[in-house]
Amino acid sequence: MTSRERVMAALTGKRPDRVPLNFFAGWNIAVREKVAARYGSVEAFCDLMHTDIVTGVLPRFPFGGAEAHARIMDLDQYLKMEPDDPESPAILSTPCDEVLNMTVNEALRYHEKEKAVFCHAWGVFELSQFLYEHGGLPGTELALLNMAAEPEKTKRMYFKLAEWTADCVENAIKAGVDVIELSDDWGQQRTMMFSPKMWWEMIYPAMKIIFDRAQRYNIPVLLHSDGDVTLVLDGIVKLGIAGLHPVQESSGMSPQQTREWLGPNICIMGGLDTITALPIMTPEEIRVEVERVFAILKNSGGYIFSGSHMIQDDTDLDVVVAAYERAYELGEYFG
Fold this sequence. Notes:
The protein is an alpha/beta fold. The protein has a single domain (3-19, 49-267, 295-304), classed as Alpha-Beta Barrel (TIM Barrel). The protein is 47% helix and 12% strand. The protein has helices spanning 3-11, 29-39, 42-48, 65-69, 75-80, 90-93, 104-108, 124-133, 139-149, 151-175, 196-216, 233-239, 255-262, 283-297, 317-330; strands spanning 21-22, 53-57, 116-122, 179-183, 187-188, 191-192, 221-224, 243-245, 267-272, 303-307. Strands 1-10-9-8-7-4-3-2 form an 8-stranded parallel sheet. It has a two-stranded antiparallel sheet with strand order 5-6. Strand 9, helix 14 (283-297) and strand 10 form a beta-alpha-beta unit. Helix 8 crosses helix 9, helix 8 packs across helix 10 (151-175) and helix 9 crosses helix 10 (151-175).
């Protein structure tokens, strides 16, 4: 199988020849420098680790870029503004930031190497946080405050953000991406950042707009949501996910229970915790950890091996190499 065929099999309920391997989304700058110093480039390192996915990232400033956000302070102003043209070529060719710096157009070139191309897009709750952070305000706190104090305006804002994201996603799909990786962090340690009721009333209907747009083109959507989102797993399934990342054990999510809830046909991506495994384990320990994760996830349904988030600069590269080498060794399916 090619990398693309392998990944698409894992995301569509079919068994590939081996477990696909992925580094999530982007590269911490310090890690990128360490990788380049030792291996020549991130691309060379990914090839050496047999990874199957390349991810291009969409911009996360719907209204005129980061500079415009510094002037905007409240929901009323945003609700009056028109977002940037989602069909503009710039949407696919503008880097998100220094860390998530591969554009969708750059990622699409990896089709020549038969890699699966993911488009990393932003969900409505994350986008609402970005609006304030670049004005020097506490983005997460204000986003949560708005959900509680201004629910109707917040819902209108989420719908506006969702329509823009859906249009951007459609732009990327028409350009040729294989999978939409939709990022919206709803969880924290042991629970969610807001009530399931608020999620169902405000976030679910807005996010469904984005999912429905991708599914109109039969493009699978893999949801990234950090923290413990167990309380809304039923809604996550109802959205129509093809996969879920990261099923974060360090926040309290159980891979076994999540697999039982999702069933075998919804892919789980993750298994390599960037908090409780990579930064603190030796190469020998990380190999044992990968064996533990594979025993749970490899044969229970669709699975893509990946870090729970980007690799951080407190991680020894030798540990990363040991993890991916062991994952590659264990990954083959038989029969």
